[in-house]
Design a protein that fits this description.
Elements lengths: L2 H11 L3 E5 L6 H6 L2 E5 L23 H11 L8 E5 L3 H4 L1 H11 L6 E4 L12 H19 L5 H27 L4 H10 L5 H17 L9 E7 L5 H9 L2 E8 L3 H4 L9 H10 L11 H15 L3 E7 L3 H4 L2 H10 L3 E7 L8 H15 L1
Parallel strand pairs: 1-2, 1-3, 3-4, 5-6, 5-7, 7-8
Length: about 375
């Protein structure tokens, strides 16, 4: 049994019905309020060591996120899941429900798969709130019918408050990282622990770490160079160690599974339709949310100015077109503001071999110090 299997089984042993969610910004509060335990199936490189099963269903030029996800669900690792949820984020992921459904059928398995569509039109161009409202209501009805549960505004309000607290605590930890008081590697590990735990347990863990690290802050090395790291996924653990060993301090992050996920949380609301209209349309800019693209450059420039970052390290997930489309323009804009950029492309085969990346990080550090 892998670590992921063990964690999901532990959640099921507590009486939870597990719904696997992808991409990164699912309606976690809604699932929680309806008695389901959401787990976020994103960045499974630590749990999935092969893609043999997935490669029979996906092209070899699909990103590691998609290949690991398909491998996890179709292999024995996904046997504890009680359902799947996904929305449209990119061309690869939006086609996975049908692929997974066929693959599960070939294995003699079946899972309810819930799909919704997030409107990708800019809110100023046309109002898509009515359409999104209809999709959220349809999702609630599907969940009620499938699992025999009933939506409750009071429970939804309680779930919203819990996820707001968890996101707020993540931002507090991020501040410690920016100050050099907490290793970015430890922060990333703690943040992603919430993907395979209940929100209540994640809050306990976050508070525990905050209390520990608030007692004894370590001083940042005078030679540490402040940088922003960006990408759809954080660097692999070995590369995070190399990043900090090279003399960088992560002054801010623009990682999709980190800052982009916990930065914004709407006010407590009883109405899930208005809540998710606010949640999605005012979300931290992300290339997977196309309508937020116009705000993205300004947000990155603000991150650089506020953090004092001298460099921008882009962790590129190979074949992730959404991320790569904006990099040439972003590089030009950052250079105009005096921020150097280092793009690193990580493929599914590179997790265990980071020597070339270490050399490039060390050279980038020397350049910025000079």
């Amino acid at each position: 049994m892998t670590d992921a299997d063990h964690k999901i089984k532990s959640l099921k042993d507590k009486g939870g019905r597990i719904i696997g969610c992808f991409p990164l910004y699912p309606p976690l509060e809604l699932f929680h309020s309806m008695g389901l335990t959401p787990v976020v199936l994103w960045g499974l490189r630590d749990f999935v060591k092969t893609s043999a099963t997935a490669d029979r269903h996906l092209q070899s030029y699909a990103c590691s996120v998609a290949r690991h996800l398909v491998e996890f669900v179709l292999s024995d690792q996904g046997r504890f899941l009680d359902g799947l949820f996904m929305y449209n984020a990119c061309d690869t992921l939006r086609n996975l429900p049908e692929i997974l459904n066929c693959g599960l059928g070939d294995n003699g398995r079946a899972l309810p798969i819930f799909k919704t569509h997030i409107p990708m039109t800019p809110p100023k161009q046309t109002s898509a709130a009515g359409y999104l409202n209809a999709r959220i209501l349809a999702l609630i009805m599907e969940l009620e019918e499938t699992y025999g549960v009933v939506f409750s505004p009071a429970r939804f309000r309680h779930s919203v408050a819990l996820y707001r607290e968890a996101r707020s605590l993540c931002k507090e930890l991020e501040i410690l990282v920016a100050k050099g008081s907490l290793s970015y590697g430890r922060f990333s590990q703690i943040n992603h622990a919430g993907y395979f735990s209940t929100v209540e347990d994640h809050i306990k863990l976050l508070k525990k770490v905050l209390n520990e690290d608030s007692l004894s802050h370590t001083k940042t090395s005078p030679s540490a160079v402040p940088v922003i790291i960006s990408g759809i996924l954080p660097p692999p653990p070995g590369l995070i160690v190399a990043l900090e060993d090279a003399g960088f301090r992560v002054a801010a992050n623009d990682i999709a599974s980190e800052r982009r996920s916990y930065d914004y949380a709407p006010d407590t609301a009883d109405n899930p339709c208005s809540y998710y209209a606010d949640f999605y349309f005012n979300h931290f800019p992300c290339p997977t949310l196309l309508y937020s693209a116009d705000k993205r450059i300004a947000m990155i420039k603000k991150l650089a100015a506020d953090s004092g970052a001298r460099g921008f390290v882009f962790i590129g997930e190979k074949f992730c077109e959404d991320e790569y489309f904006e990099i040439p323009h972003l590089e030009r804009i950052l250079k105009e503001t005096g921020v150097a950029i280092l793009p690193l492309e990580i493929s599914i085969e590179d997790d265990a071999n980071n020597k070339a990346y270490v050399t490039r990080l060390e050279a980038f550090h020397e350049m910025l110090r000079g």
